[in-house]
Amino acid sequence: MNDVANDVMIEAHGLTKSYGKPGSGVRVLDGVGLRVARGGIHALLGPNGAGKTTTVRILATLTTADSGTARVAGYDVVADRRRVRRAISLTGQFAAVDETLTGEENLRMMARLSGLTRTRARARAEELLARFDLADAARRQARTYSGGMRRRLDLAAGLVGSPEPGVFFLDEPTTGLDPRSRRQLWQVVRDLAGRGATVLLTTQYLEEADQLADRITVLDKGVRAAEGTPEELKSRVSGHRLDLVLSSRETYLRLAGRAVHHSPETLTLGLPTDGTAAHVRALLDETDPHRTDVDRFSLHSATLDDVFLALTTEKTEAPTHV
Ligand SMILES: Nc1ncnc2c1ncn2[C@@H]1O[C@H](COP(=O)(O)OP(=O)(O)OP(=O)(O)O)[C@@H](O)[C@H]1O
Ligand SMILES: [Mg+2]
């Protein structure tokens, strides 16, 4: 329980997990650690197969790690599994949303199942429908809901029990949503955290991690590649990038080795810079002394895309050939 006293709601150390036969299995987590404070929104960011879902499933007690330890809401995920389950909500868990029932009926039913009286279940459903902007659709069957409405109903379903869970695991909560629905869902997640809930979400969207998370763990091939605030991660790459559109393949090859961004199709290279006029001017003079090799240029602030590419394995594939 000490963790909770310290306000660490999710804590994992050295998680490993392999699938397949011992000896010939595939290791999908290789010593992952994690720490999320109460009220935090933490993103697990990584490419397909990085181990994001596996990590969430271990923390949510749906599977066990081969080694390592984890505590959620102060409880050990193995020894205190039942208590952990009561303290968390996991999206996807409520694939139990019944498509043929209305949103309202779904929530009332779940509230009843979690032990509320009829009257309280009705009130709780109404409150959640309003909070998740589903009041207008409350009396429609869930199968008529759009993707975004469906995700909100899933989240609401995770909240019907009383008291509300303190820790939310959201595995790719906005995959497949249009930009507007995604923004709406982000707001829902921010509201949850604003009420003191702790959120661990997985995402492949760099923008999502940047917008929503106060801390990010970059996972790559089962290993923690980096951890920090979005700003910290961005500053690791370099503050800014000068993109040069080069006039020839020869120039591209000459400069490719020092670039942090490569686009051979368009003969574009991005060079790190601090973004000051003096440095940009010096870079242009140095890379193109005769003023014939650079056709155009543009200046970019580093994005999480740059971080992601620099930190995950794709970087070894940075093309130096055209
Ligand atoms: N039950 C299983 N049996 C065998 N291999 C598995 C199993 N579950 C996951 N894996 C493998 O473990 C690796 C990590 O999977 P995981 O689902 O954790 O990745 P992820 O980061 O969530 O990826 P995605 O972005 O595609 O959702 C993958 O190579 C996957 O094929
Ligand atoms: Mg996954």
TrEMBL record:
Major localization class: membrane
Cellular localization per UniProt: Cell membrane
Keyword tags: Antibiotic resistance, ATP-binding, Cell membrane, Membrane, Nucleotide-binding, Translocase, Transport
Keyword Translocase belongs to the record: yes
Keyword Membrane: yes
GO MF annotation, one: ATP binding
Protein topology in the membrane: Peripheral membrane protein
Domain called ABC transporter: residue spans: 10-246
Entry superkingdom: Bacteria
Family: Belongs to the ABC transporter superfamily. Drug exporter-1 (DrugE1) (TC 3.A.1.105) family.
Protein name, UniProt field: ATP-binding cassette domain-containing protein
Species this chain originates from: Streptomyces silvae
